[in-house]
């Protein structure tokens, strides 16, 4: 079976060192005449690396092949050192050799240990993650680099703890979205900004767009499914409530480093509705959301209402709704959240996807599990997905028989789709992700461009972020009194500025926001965070 392979290996053994992968120093010299040596070296390195990585996978059943690839890797390492490439890239060569060492133990007389298998699994996963990183770099290569903050401001004062039970014990069975809580239970972002957190891994949509252009519809929906799951990862360890926006409050996110522009507006107060619209490279994503909450004494159940729509420039569309969220141990024990239910991603082309978020039990040893299938028009299962909503998602081709769950212990059968980013080095008690920490930041020159309705200008939220808790509470109470006007405003015919309701009751972006921003024309945008007439509020009831 390996006859042609062995012939190739014999030729490889007889090759001069300069012809082996990783020894194209002459090529580097020729190409760098027209550009940056560092850039060219990086491009050549990437090509050599993936060539070697593929050798590890394709030649995994041949010990002789392992010997040659290790030899080639040693020479690549030597060339990289001579060319002055960073130590990190040189260490990658050692990673290849390590994987081949563990793989070649398969041919030895003794059985490989569990530790060896684990080491090879980690190495194979490393290769997969590197390949994903390469795809991400390809998608992001045209985006500028924007410097954003890495931590929240240091708090001015030390906050005082408050008993949650003492505040909500009289509201059992009620809708907690209408219960006024002190800022101690808030995190310093609004629900409008929280909505944008679902786009942290928008590179998955960039990749899905790219696969679709190449005619690979299966890879497209697999990446869409991974994106739909990834939005839940930021909820792990987040026990505080985002600020409830005022009627007409907005939030914009112009992130050129991600290639996305996002805009959201609170379009209704009763019921509370948030509408959003996002544009990326080759795709648009929009929807409106409402949370129906129920407090049972020891937990809160949040049921999302609304449909999310993703449309690619080629016309392929996917729609899905979010699953149920529960927050447990409000009175005793460690507070934690869980997501459970069935998510159906409906496509208008070849494929659809069903994902089951498994509900966590008291004795669950492996929580946060998600698994499901991609199906074609005939109902045939063409791919199986599995993973955890707070960590990663994988897939294998076809349907996995047996227990209904894939064998995650065998990396050769699975491909990594998404992996959660590393936690923030300065998360504070809010446990915000590195991405969430940037959402309320006012970067240089931004404030002059914002409308007076943007969440970043909300004073109670800004004071909480700065650790000025008394001032934050005072401002929150003032704005909550102003919120009493919202129902009367809606009843008197108030309409959202940037979204309109269609015949199905869904809100769609009507355009004009970014054009108004370009002209700094915010005529007609109310100063919703400013002072107001208390008597008007009292009379509105």
TrEMBL record:
Gene3D superfamilies for this protein: 2.40.160.120, 3.30.70.3490
Compositional bias per record (Basic and acidic residues), positions renumbered to this chain: 455-483
GO term, biological process aspect, one: lipid transport
InterPro entries noted in UniProt: OSBP_sf, Oxysterol-bd
Gene Ontology terms: cellular component: cytosol; membrane
Region of interest called Disordered, as start-end residue ranges on this chain: 446-488
Keyword entries, A-Z: Coiled coil, Lipid transport, Lipid-binding, Transport
GO molecular function annotations of the record: sterol binding
Signal peptide positions on this chain: none
Highest taxon above the source species: Eukaryota
Cited function: May be involved in the transport of sterols.
Record family assignment: Belongs to the OSBP family.
UniProt-recorded name of the protein: Oxysterol-binding protein
Organism in which the protein naturally occurs: Gossypium darwinii
């Amino acid at each position: 079976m390996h006859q042609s392979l062995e012939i190739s290996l014999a030729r490889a053994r007889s090759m001069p060192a300069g012809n082996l992968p990783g020894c194209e120093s002459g090529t580097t010299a020729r190409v760098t005449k027209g550009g940056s040596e560092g850039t060219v070296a990086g491009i050549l390195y990437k090509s050599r690396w993936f060539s070697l990585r593929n050798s590890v996978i394709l030649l995994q059943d041949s010990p002789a092949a392992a010997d040659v690839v290790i030899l080639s890797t040693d020479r690549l390492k030597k060339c990289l050192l001579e060319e002055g490439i960073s130590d990190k890239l040189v260490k990658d060569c050692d990673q290849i050799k390590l994987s081949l060492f563990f793989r070649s133990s398969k041919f030895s007389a003794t059985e490989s240990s569990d530790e060896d298998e684990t080491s090879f699994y980690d190495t194979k996963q490393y290769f997969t993650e590197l390949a994903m990183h390469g795809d991400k770099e390809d998608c992001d290569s045209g985006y500028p680099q924007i410097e954003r903050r890495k931590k929240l401001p240091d708090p001015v004062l030390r906050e005082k703890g408050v008993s949650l039970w003492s505040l909500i014990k009289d509201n059992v069975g009620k809708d907690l979205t209408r219960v006024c809580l002190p800022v101690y239970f808030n995190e310093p972002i609004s629900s409008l900004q929280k909505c944008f957190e679902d786009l942290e891994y928008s590179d998955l949509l960039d990749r899905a767009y790219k696969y679709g252009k190449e005619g690979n519809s299966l890879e497209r929906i697999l990446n869409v499914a991974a994106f739909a799951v990834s939005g839940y990862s930021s909820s792990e360890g987040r026990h505080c409530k985002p600020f409830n926006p005022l009627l007409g409050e907005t939030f914009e996110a112009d992130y050129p480093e991600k290639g996305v522009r996002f805009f959201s507006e609170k379009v209704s107060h009763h019921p509370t509705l948030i509408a959003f619209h996002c544009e990326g490279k080759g795709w648009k994503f929009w929807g409106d959301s409402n949370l129906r909450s129920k407090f049972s004494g020891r937990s809160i159940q949040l049921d999302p209402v609304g449909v999310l729509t993703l449309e690619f420039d080629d016309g392929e569309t996917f729609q899905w709704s979010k699953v149920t969220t529960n927050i447990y141990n409000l009175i005793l024990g460690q507070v934690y959240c869980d997501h459970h239910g069935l998510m159906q991603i409906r496509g208008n082309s070849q494929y659809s996807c069903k994902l089951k978020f498994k509900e966590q039990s008291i004795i669950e040893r492996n929580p946060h599990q998600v698994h499901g299938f991609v199906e074609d028009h005939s109902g045939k299962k063409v791919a199986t997905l599995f993973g955890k909503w707070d960590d990663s998602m994988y897939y294998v081709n076809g349907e996995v028989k047996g227990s209904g769950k894939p064998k995650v212990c065998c990396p050769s059968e699975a491909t990594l789709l998404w992996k959660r980013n590393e936690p923030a080095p300065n998360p504070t008690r809010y446990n915000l992700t590195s991405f969430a920490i940037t959402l309320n930041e006012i970067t240089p020159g931004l404030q002059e461009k914002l409308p007076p309705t943007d969440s970043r200008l909300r004073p109670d939220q800004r004071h909480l972020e700065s650790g000025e808790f008394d001032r934050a509470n005072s401002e929150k109470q003032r704005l909550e009194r102003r919120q009493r006007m919202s129902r009367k405003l809606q009843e008197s015919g108030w309409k959202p500025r940037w979204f309109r309701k269609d015949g199905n009751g869904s809100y769609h972006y009507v355009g004009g926001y970014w054009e108004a921003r370009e002209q700094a024309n915010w005529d007609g945008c109310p100063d919703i965070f400013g002072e107001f007439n208390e008597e008007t509020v009292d009379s509105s009831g």
